[in-house]
Amino acid sequence: MRILYTLIVELSRLFLPVVGLFKPSIKSFLLQRKTAFHDLSDWEKRPSKKPVLWLHCASLGEYEMIVPLISEEKIQRKFEIVISFFSASGYQHAKTDGLISAKFYLPLDRQSEMKRLVSMVDPAVFVLVKYDFWLNLLSAVNDHACSTIIVNGVFRKNQFMSSFFAGAWRKQLKKFNNIYVQNEASLNTLEGFDFRNVTLSKDLRFDRVVQLKSKNVAIPQIANFTNNQTTLILGSSWPEEEYIVLQYLVAIKPNIKVIIAPHDVRLEHIEKLQKDYQDFNPVLFTDTTDFTNSQVLILNTIGHLSSAYQYASIAFVGGAFGKGLHNVLEAAVHGIPIMTGTKIEAFPEAITLQDLGVLHALDQDPRHFIDVIADYLENPDKLHQAKEILSNWFEGLTGESKKIQDYILSVS
């Protein structure tokens, strides 16, 4: 399988540039890969000679998980910290100022390039965040004289890593010093393949959302808009959620405020939202501070959602009708009930919140959304009960970042 995989990667190197002639996204992807060694060449000129802690994150969400881990003073003092990303969302939008020394895109997973990459970075500790199991990368770090760790791992019986074809990947993962998994199902899955290097831990995102909540700053525009009124927020919404809420506003005409933080903040989509919601006087976050006659505020920016939740009464978190559920913990930490689409089975935290009765997985019939939100608005005590349930739930779920920090310091 290793030979076949390597052949596929090499063929991709030849095939993708041709596709890129017709697809700008592929062309951009390839150009991003070419920047890695240039970025590292600049970083290699640094005066610091501290050991290197290298963390690889697929995208922005994975980076957010490990911010509490890398921001700890002992880690900062001990290591030179570098981050690699696979996607542009992480590389372009991660708030890394003051936390890391370098960032770079992960090149295509070719044997020669991964060996060269690992040699240049020369990590004392390599941390893989959650997933992004590139076979030649795993092999290269295992061949290097460094400690290897996976954090926030999630493994399921129905995913590729559990398949017959993934034997070569599992062989490399068994060589890692420690694999921290965030639930017992993942632990059982790996132990079923005779892994001996697995540690059951808590989800690092709990530490991150609590950290974000403690650092939440006031956003005057949003405070002026909500004006202490009951507020529904759409968190990282897709067209499916936006359509349902529009039908709710049209049919019920509720006396509430609505904040829309769309997943897609491109101008075309923002303009479409303005047109669709025109009867409700939508305003853009970047346009004005006068919200007197507006019922809908559109966050046409990136980076304000986690703080915006503090002004909401109820959340409708996007992605669970298709692409993948956005982070529900960012809303839950503020003690507000949550609605989502139905595809939550791959998100253990969403399942738990559903069992607790504070998350409601709805189908795409707007009437179901209307029934759930009406129940909360007509029974304010239910909002208070949700807040209490969520407050109790978060107790005891934090502190895992500190344990992993101590482990990293012990093996470096």
Tell me what you see in this structure.
The protein has 20 helices and 14 strands. It is an alpha/beta fold. The chain folds into two domains: 215 residues, 3-Deoxy-D-manno-octulosonic-acid transferase, N-terminal domain (Rossmann fold, 3-Layer(aba) Sandwich); 177 residues, Glycogen Phosphorylase B (Rossmann fold), CATH 3.40.50.2000. The strands form two sheets. A seven-stranded parallel beta sheet has the order 3-2-1-4-5-6-7, sandwiched between helices. The protein has a seven-stranded parallel beta sheet with strand order 10-11-9-8-12-13-14, sandwiched between helices. Strand 13, helix 17 and strand 14 form a beta-alpha-beta unit. Helix 18 crosses helix 19. The protein is globular, with a radius of gyration of 23 Å.
Descriptive terms for the model:
single chain; 412 residues; Rossmann fold; 20 helices
Treating each run of at least 4 consecutive H or I residues as one helix, how many helices?
20
> Rg from C-alpha positions?
23 Å
Enumerate the strands of the largest sheet in spatial order, edge to edge or round the barrel.
Answer: 3-2-1-4-5-6-7
Q: Report the mean per-residue pLDDT as an integer.
A: 92
Helix content: 40-55%
Strand residue percentage: 15-25%
> What is the CATH topology classification name of the largest domain?
Rossmann fold
CATH superfamily membership of the largest domain, which one? 3-Deoxy-D-manno-octulosonic-acid transferase, N-terminal domain
- DSSP E strands, number: 14
Structural class: alpha/beta
Shape: globular
Main beta-sheet strand count, sense and barrel state: 7 strands, parallel
* CATH architecture call of the largest domain: 3-Layer(aba) Sandwich
Unreliably modeled segments: none
Distance between termini? 32 Å
Q: Give the CATH class of the largest domain.
A: Alpha Beta
